[in-house]
Amino acid sequence: MTGSDDLRSMLATGRFRAVAEALVGLEAARRRRLCRPLVGQARAVLDASLESTVATWLADLREGYPGGRERFVGAWRGRLGTQHWDAATTVLLGARTTAQAAKVWPVPADSDFTVWLYPALFGDELAVVTEQWAADFATNPKHWDRNRGREVMFEWVEAGLVPAPSHDGAVLMLLDGWAPDGGREQLGWLLEHPVVTEQVFRRIFTTPGIKGASTAQADSQNDGEPLRTVVIPGLVAAGVWDRELVRAGAQTALASTWPAYQRRWFARLADDFAD
Description:
Blueprint: H1 4-12, H2 16-23, H3 28-35, H4 39-47, H5 54-60, H6 82-94, H7 98-101, H8 111-122, H9 126-139, H10 144-147, H11 153-158, H12 169-175, H13 183-192, H14 194-199, H15 215-221, H16 227-237, H17 243-254, H18 260-272
Helix pairs in contact: 1-6, 2-6, 4-6, 9-12, 13-16, 17-18
């Protein structure tokens, strides 16, 4: 049976998949008990710089650093790589309840690993994670470090592992290009994710934008391949949406109390699809 000392060795050597496999399937309270003694070591790893060694990190450590030198002794072996960070993040997730884990950032750098990890650890409580991530995005779309990698939640929605987040932040995340990357690439991504398109992206007509994420801002950031003239017409051409849906959606947005610059975008969209 895996114990805290085994996990400590896995963390020090960056074996993030081994850490995860040791934790998956454990009763949640036991998983937290195993991981809590390693939280200090995990934080030390996440505080350090890529490619550093413990020796070089300690040599440059400023006096009075929180936790002191002992926090870093034995924290990792060799040069620090993303595999160490992913192992450390996995330990932090394992040490927390689902609601607490949903606030841990950034997520592991290996996206394939991240897609698997959260459902494996949190199972039926996965919606707690996606709702928190959507809410976090809405508070600050430009918080790059916190938001990075969280677009994996759309893969869970598409796979039917979790309902689409009800929070508007999920829609804003798609508008701001966190899952796809604007224009034609975004259209291709949406066509490959019909569930997300239907349950999340379709809500652009009823979701007010915010500073940093709106339909108007999405177009201003996508030179030559904007949302209005590439993505939405592409969905109509592919038969995913019909013209009446777009016209009705635009009128809904125009009847709202949203800021004028956002309603002007929908007015132009309505003109595009006028008979």
